[in-house]
């Protein structure tokens, strides 16, 4: 009993939340209900009217009286009109319902897409990309495929049940009491099966996300898999996940599919009883042949909505499992919102960037950044060095506002970075990461993406590419600046992609430039060419450089040495060279 209650308590909020998406379309759904009532009512009335024709023919045959063919013809015409009206109202019902459900799914997709932009970087670090894609695409598509069917079948089934029950009670309350035995039996069967299969449906969606994550990882890591001859290992891992998904999917579908045959068995037993009782009633002239014929037709019609409601319970299970995963994504903690106000970036005493007692931890247990205090002047170039894992990239992400400090704050011109409006942040920073993402668009569009202006000229794009030392190789491509970068970016080398990313940062013309291993994918000769170009970009701008190459670091106004998230050395090249420690060993 406790287990049933827990299952219900988990399902109820999901259903309630799904219903909240329907609220804006209450008027249209009210129209859908009216059309469903009309359509179903016309269909329900048909057996009674047909029974009148059967009774007329039966009495004429038994009593030897003349059959009123005009009466029969009128009944046939009436039936034709009822079926036609039923079809028209069904069409109108489906038309409105499709519009409502597609708008609901559109809203849900939009919410998920917008949510992904609001999530902190740490979420993507700790969550499989394939699982995120599965929630954003597969689970929403599962809801899309079942939502309309669920609403439509539920409405028509409930209305049909009520209408058929009323007419059957009118024809024969006694026989109707026998038919009603189907309802508690159906509820008992459905409840037992749903309880058992729900867990499998939930795990099915979870394992599907896991499999998507593995496939996405295998696809992006094809070169490594082939280089280390790990094809068999990858295939074995895939088969394990695929077999597990198959097992849970099979069990979920098998257990839930047993609802239909068990209900049919129950219904057929009741149907036999109804036929026997009906025959006895007709022989004893307690009911007309036409009415019992109509009643038997209603018994069959009564079974259909019961079966549909059982099918809906099956559908609801998979829909709830998918919805629960989507809502979990929507409920993830978001990146702290920036205040909607214009920040004053004017600096006092030339101090522009201030790290004030900043600490950060990804898992709230071990700190990656420990009590960092830094005051950077406007126009100053700061190089940050340290061993792998020292916290260099994390420090740059904190500066960009992509991560929120666990303790302390970061001020830009006296304003907390998390109180600066997003658009102002975009205008404030220009960034080149160690691993840069290029979009499946033309090279021109990728470079122009960094511009704050709506209209970017070809001359501006070319100038940015020239400054980043990218123009020469772009012009040698078959389509030049119109070359489309493919989805994985494999039609460009890593160095070429890095140069385009630098050109994109040039287009931004930022106040603060952040270069996180910006030249890590280019050779020494190319690095020198890029450094020449970057000198012009860095002039007059506050610049943070994370680099391993001494040539980049020596010219910095200030050098910060990080170790285990703490600043252990600070000064310019000459000052640090005179001291023994990490920097001197690094340069040497």
Automatic annotation (TrEMBL):
<dbReference type="InterPro" id="IPR036640">
    <property type="entry name" value="ABC1_TM_sf"/>
</dbReference>
<feature type="transmembrane region" description="Helical">
    <location>
        <begin position="177"/>
        <end position="194"/>
    </location>
</feature>
<keyword id="KW-0067">ATP-binding</keyword>
<feature type="transmembrane region" description="Helical">
    <location>
        <begin position="151"/>
        <end position="171"/>
    </location>
</feature>
<keyword id="KW-1133">Transmembrane helix</keyword>
<feature type="transmembrane region" description="Helical">
    <location>
        <begin position="269"/>
        <end position="287"/>
    </location>
</feature>
<dbReference type="InterPro" id="IPR003439">
    <property type="entry name" value="ABC_transporter-like_ATP-bd"/>
</dbReference>
<feature type="domain" description="ABC transporter">
    <location>
        <begin position="353"/>
        <end position="587"/>
    </location>
</feature>
<protein>
    <submittedName>
        <fullName>ABC transporter ATP-binding protein/permease</fullName>
    </submittedName>
</protein>
<dbReference type="Pfam" id="PF00664">
    <property type="entry name" value="ABC_membrane"/>
</dbReference>
<feature type="domain" description="ABC transmembrane type-1">
    <location>
        <begin position="32"/>
        <end position="318"/>
    </location>
</feature>
<dbReference type="Pfam" id="PF00005">
    <property type="entry name" value="ABC_tran"/>
</dbReference>
<keyword id="KW-0812">Transmembrane</keyword>
<dbReference type="InterPro" id="IPR027417">
    <property type="entry name" value="P-loop_NTPase"/>
</dbReference>
<dbReference type="InterPro" id="IPR003593">
    <property type="entry name" value="AAA+_ATPase"/>
</dbReference>
<dbReference type="InterPro" id="IPR039421">
    <property type="entry name" value="Type_1_exporter"/>
</dbReference>
<feature type="transmembrane region" description="Helical">
    <location>
        <begin position="70"/>
        <end position="92"/>
    </location>
</feature>
<feature type="transmembrane region" description="Helical">
    <location>
        <begin position="29"/>
        <end position="50"/>
    </location>
</feature>
<keyword id="KW-0547">Nucleotide-binding</keyword>
<keyword id="KW-0472">Membrane</keyword>
<dbReference type="GO" id="GO:0005524">
    <property type="term" value="F:ATP binding"/>
</dbReference>
<dbReference type="InterPro" id="IPR011527">
    <property type="entry name" value="ABC1_TM_dom"/>
</dbReference>
């Amino acid at each position: 009993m406790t287990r049933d209650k827990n299952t219900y308590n988990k399902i109820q909020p999901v259903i309630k939340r799904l219903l909240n998406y329907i609220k804006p379309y209450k008027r249209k759904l009210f129209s859908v209900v009216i059309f469903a009532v009309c359509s179903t009512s016309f269909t329900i009335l048909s057996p009674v009217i047909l029974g009148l024709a059967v009774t007329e023919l039966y009495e004429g045959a038994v009593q030897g009286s003349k059959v009123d063919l005009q009466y029969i013809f009128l009944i046939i015409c009436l039936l034709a009109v009822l079926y036609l009206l039923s079809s028209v109202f069904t069409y109108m019902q489906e038309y409105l319902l499709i519009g409502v459900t597609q708008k609901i799914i559109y809203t849900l997709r939009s919410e998920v897409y917008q949510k992904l932009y609001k999530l902190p970087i740490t979420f993507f670090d700790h969550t499989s990309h394939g699982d995120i894609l599965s929630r954003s695409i597969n689970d929403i598509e599962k809801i899309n495929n079942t939502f309309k069917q669920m609403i439509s079948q539920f409405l028509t089934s409930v209305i049909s049940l009520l209408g058929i029950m009323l007419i059957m009670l009118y024809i024969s309350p006694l026989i109707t009491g026998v038919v009603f035995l189907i309802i508690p039996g159906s509820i008992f069967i459905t409840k037992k099966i749903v309880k058992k299969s729900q867990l499998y449906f939930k795990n099915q969606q979870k394992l599907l996300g896991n499999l998507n994550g593995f496939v996405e990882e295998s696809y992006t890591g094809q070169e490594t898999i082939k280089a280390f001859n790990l094809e068999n290992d990858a295939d074995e891992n895939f088969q394990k996940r695929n077999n597990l998904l198959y097992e849970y999917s099979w069990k979920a579908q098998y257990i839930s599919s047993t609802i239909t045959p068990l209900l049919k068995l129950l219904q057929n037993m009741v149907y036999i009883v109804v036929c026997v009782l009906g025959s006895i009633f007709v022989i004893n002239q307690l009911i007309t042949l036409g009415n019992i014929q109509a009643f038997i037709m209603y018994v069959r019609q009564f079974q259909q909505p019961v079966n549909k409601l059982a099918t809906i319970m099956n559908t609801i299970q998979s829909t709830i499992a998918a919805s629960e995963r989507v809502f979990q994504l929507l409920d993830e903690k978001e990146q702290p919102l920036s205040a909607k106000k214009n920040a004053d970036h004017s600096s006092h005493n030339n101090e522009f960037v201030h790290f004030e007692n900043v600490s950060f931890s990804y898992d709230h247990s071990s700190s990656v950044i420990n009590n960092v205090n830094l005051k950077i002047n406007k126009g100053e170039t700061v190089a940050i060095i340290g061993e792998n894992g020292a916290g260099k990239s994390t420090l740059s992400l904190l500066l960009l506002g992509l991560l929120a400090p666990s303790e302390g704050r970061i001020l830009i011109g006296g304003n907390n970075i998390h109180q600066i409006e997003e658009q102002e942040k975009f205008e404030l920073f220009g960034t080149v990461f160690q691993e840069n993402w290029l979009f499946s668009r033309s090279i021109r569009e990728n470079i122009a993406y960094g511009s704050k202006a709506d209209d970017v000229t070809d001359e501006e794009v070319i100038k940015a590419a020239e400054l980043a030392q990218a123009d020469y190789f772009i012009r040698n491509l078959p389509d030049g600046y119109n070359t489309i970068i493919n989805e994985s970016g494999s039609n460009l080398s890593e160095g070429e992609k890095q140069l385009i990313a630098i050109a994109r940062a040039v287009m931004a013309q930022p106040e603060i430039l952040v270069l996180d291993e910006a030249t890590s994918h280019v050779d020494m000769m190319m690095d020198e060419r890029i450094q020449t170009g970057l000198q012009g970009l860095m002039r007059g701008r506050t610049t943070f450089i994370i680099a391993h190459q001494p040539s980049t670091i020596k010219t910095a106004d200030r050098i910060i040495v990080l170790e285990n998230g703490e600043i252990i050395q600070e000064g310019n090249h000459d000052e640090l060279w005179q001291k023994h420690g990490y920097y001197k060993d690094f340069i040497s």
